[in-house]
Amino acid sequence: MLEILLLFKLCKHIGLLAKEKGLKPIKYQLLVIALWIGVECVVGTSGYLTLFFLYGEEQAEALYFAFYFIALVGSVISVWLLFNYVKSLPQKKSIMVF
To answer: Which of 58, 62, 75, 96 is the most buried (most CB within 10 A)?
Structure first.
């Protein structure tokens, strides 16, 4: 539940940042969600499967929460990189038509 609230706040914040730059916010809001869920799933699953195949089920189960924490850190880093990317984009010039 806390992750959903955090994702909501992150989407709202990156949407405001994109609007300030003159960009469409929905693209970057969807990227926040996709990056968060994608990185969390890939890192968590790959870490769990690596331990499972190397050391067995008992060791993998014992370190499940450690890999979940590592997956969360990976998700935070990926969203932070997206925020820095959006901040580095140039301001779009608006063309006025009379």
So the answer is: 75
Q: Give 19's pLDDT tier (boundaries 50, 70, 90).
A: very high
Residue found under tokens 């089920």: 57
72: CB partners within 8 A, 6+ apart: 40
Spatial neighbors of 92 by CB under 8 A, at least 6 apart, are 21, 22, 23
For the chain, helix, strand, coil in percent to 5 are 85, 0, 15
Q: How many whole angstroms separate alpha carbon 67 and alpha carbon 37?
A: 14
Q: Find, among 82, 71, 78, 81, the residue nearest to 29 by Cα.
A: 82
Joined tokens for residue 12: 């709202």
Report the alpha-carbon distance of residue 24 to residue 19 in Å, rounded.
Answer: 7
Instruction: Give the C-alpha distances (Å, rounded to integers) separating 4 from 7, 49, 75.
Output: 5, 26, 13
| Residue 29, helix vs strand vs coil | helix
